[in-house]
Amino acid sequence: MTTASDIEPVHPVDVVIALGANLGDRLAALRGAVDGLRATPGVEVVAVSSVYETEPVGGPQQPEYANAVVLVRATIPVMALLERAHAIEAEWERVRAERWGPRTLDIDIIDAGGAVSDDPVLTLPHPRAHERGFVIVPWLEIEPDATLVGHGRIRDLKVDTTGVRISSDRIPTE
């Protein structure tokens, strides 16, 4: 089993990233996350899903989320991409006070080229992605033939999509 720190792309690796926000200007935060990824050397934004309004899963009572999924092509190590994601979250004043609590911005790496890692800092694929409608629905939109290691094609997953609604809001793709 490899760890996330062992995953250094020799060739570009497609990485699936989930975005979510339910505090402050949610759409601005999602756009800021995409802009931040786009500005990262060694990261090319390939596709951005529509924005989806979703009900919170777990945690305390809180506002609805705005969610999206981004497909990037990375030539930097996946741990460097995770560090960049955390820096972008910090720019949006993300506070990690409560598990599954409300947040200004959440950036999760879901899949990195099909790599498998049990690194405590970054488990790949994301251990709950296959259960999350707010990840699978937008991911299907931008990569309908994708597979998730250990779970097969994402279009075949039996995931609860109750409360996942497409929004009229958009994130610019360029």
UniProtKB/TrEMBL annotation:
MF term (GO), any: kinase activity
PANTHER family: 2-AMINO-4-HYDROXY-6-HYDROXYMETHYLDIHYDROPTERIDINE PYROPHOSPHOKINASE
Keywords from the named record: ATP-binding, Folate biosynthesis, Kinase, Nucleotide-binding, Transferase
Entry protein name: 2-amino-4-hydroxy-6-hydroxymethyldihydropteridine diphosphokinase
This protein's pathway: Cofactor biosynthesis; tetrahydrofolate biosynthesis; 2-amino-4-hydroxy-6-hydroxymethyl-7,8-dihydropteridine diphosphate from 7,8-dihydroneopterin triphosphate: step 4/4
Record-listed E.C. numbers: 2.7.6.3
Organism: freshwater metagenome
7,8-dihydro-6-hydroxymethylpterin-pyrophosphokinase domain boundaries: 99-110
Any one of the GO BP annotations: tetrahydrofolate biosynthetic process
